[in-house]
Amino acid sequence: MKNNFYKLLFLFALSLFAISCSNDDDNHDDHDHDQDTSEEHTFVRVLLSDEKTTALTLFDPHEDKISSFTAKFAKASLYTTESGRYAGIVHRDNNFVETFDSGLELHGDHIDVDDVPKFGVLATSALKPTHFKSKIGEILTFNDGDGTLSVGKEADVNKAGATFKTINAGLLAHHGAMATFTNGTYAITVKDNSVTGTLPEKVKIIDNTGKTLFDAKIQTKGIHGNASDGVYAVFGSSSGILVVESNGNQKLIDHPADFGTAWFGSILETASAGKFIGYTAAKGAYLIDVVAGTVKPIIANTTIMQCKTSYDRKKLAVLLHSGEFKLYDISSLQPVKETKATTETATDATLKPQMAVTDRFAYITSPSTGELVQVNLTTLAIKKTKVSSTPYMITVLGYENSETHSH
Fold it and tell me: Per-residue pLDDT for 18 more than 50?
C-alpha cells in the first residue's frame, strides 16, 4: 500500500515537472514574438558619426538613450562587422581605422550585455583605407593609397596589443575593392592602367599571404562596387556584372538592354544565396541572380538618394530626393511600405541624408537639423532625436532580438 502511495506521488510530481517544462518551452518560444513590434528590438543600436566634429553617437532606440563618444577624427565612415557586435570606423583622409564594441554578445537564442560600449583596442594606420568588408570573423579594408589589404580579427577587437595584418599582393595603388570567400581566399581588384583614372579593370584571387592563386580572366573598362555571399563575389563593371568564384571561374552578366552606358556602381548582398542588388542612380535598383544570369528591376527610378538593404538583408529600402521612403520585399520584388519620411533634398546638396534599416524601423540622418529621423515601419509614425551638430554616416549594430539570459 505504501509502495503504491509513493508511486502515485512520484507520478504526480513527474507530471507537474513535465507541465512546468512545457510551459517554459512555450514562454521561450513566444517571448520575443509577443513583443510590441511598434517598438525597436531591445538589442538594436544605431551608431552615427559627425561631419564637422569628432562626435560619435550611440543611440539605443528601445530605451531612447544616447551615449556620446569621441572618435579620432571627424567625418568617419561607419561599418558593422559580420557578427553585429562591432563597428569599423574608417578615417580615409586621415589614414586610420579604429574599432568600436557595442558590448552586446549573441549567445544562441539570446543576447548578453557582455561589456559597456567602448572603442576597441584593434586599430591600424593605412594609406587611404576605403573599401570595408567583414566575413569569416575578419575585418578588412582595401587601402587605395598603396593597393594593400589590412586584415584584423573580430576576436581581437579588445585584445591587448592586437593589430591588423597587411597583405601586399603587389598591386598598383587604385580605388579598389576585395571580397572574402568562405575558404579564406580573397577576390581583389587589379589596376593595369588599360583605362585611365583610378578604377581597376580586373579581378584576381589571392590567399592570405598575397600570393596569386588565379589570375584575372576577364578585362573590363572599369570596376566599382562589390559584394560577396562567400561563394560568389560580384563586382559592378562598365562592361557588365562581373561574377567571380574562388576556383578562378569568372563571367560577365549583361546589363538590361535599355541601360545604354549606365552600369551598377553599387552592389549589395542579400539574404538569398547567389542573389544581389545592383544599384545605379541613372536607372534604379535591380535584383541580380548570378546563377540564372538574370537582372530584374525592383525600382526603376532616377531620383533615388539612398539605396540600402535592411539589417537582415531581406528588404530593400530606398529614399528618394523628394523625401519619399519606399520598402521592398527582396524575395517577391514587391513594395511593402511607403511614406514621406523627410523633407526634399536638393540633388546637388553637399551633404545628404544617410539611412540604415532594421525589420522594424528606418533610421535617417538629417544633417541640416542634427537629428536622427526614426520611421516606424509598422505604424509609419515618425520621431526625431537630436544626435550631433551635423550627422554624417550611420550604421546599425547589435541584434534584432529582445531575448535576455534571464527570460
Answer: no
| Burial environment of residue 48 by CB neighbours within 10 A (0 to 12, 13 to 18, 19 or more) | buried
**At 22, phi and psi to the nearest 5?**
-60, -40
Kindly write down the DSSP assignment for every residue of 19-37, as one continuous string. HHHHHHHHHHHHTTTTS-T
30-44, 152-166, 391-405: segment of lowest average pLDDT: 30-44
CA neighbor of 201 nearest in space, from 231, 236, 234: 236
Residue 379 corresponds to which cell in the numbers above? 505604424
Can you tell me whether residue 10 is helix, strand or coil? Answer: helix
Q: Which helix (H) or strand (E) holds 77?
A: strand 77-80
- Round to the nearest angstrom and report the end-to-end CA distance of the chain: 43
Average of per-residue pLDDT across 36-63: 95
C-alpha to C-alpha distance for 283 and 258, rounded to whole angstroms = 9
Report the largest interatomic distance among the alpha carbons of the chain, rounded to a whole angstrom.
98
Sequence-ordered strand ranges (E) for 92-230: 96-101, 104-107, 110-113, 118-125, 129-133, 138-143, 148-153, 165-167, 178-180, 186-190, 202-206, 212-214, 223-228
Residues 254, 259: Cα–Cα separation, whole Å: 10
Res 141 pLDDT > 70: yes
Give the C-alpha distances (Å, rounded to integers) separating 67 from 47, 64, 115, 218.
Answer: 10, 10, 14, 48
- CA–CA distance, 63 with 369 (Å, rounded to integer): 22
**Residue pLDDT, tens place only, 333-384:** 999 999 999 999 999 999 999 999 999 999 999 999 999 999 999 999 999 9
Q: For position 261, what pLDDT does the model report?
A: 97
| H or E stretch covering 3 | helix 2-30
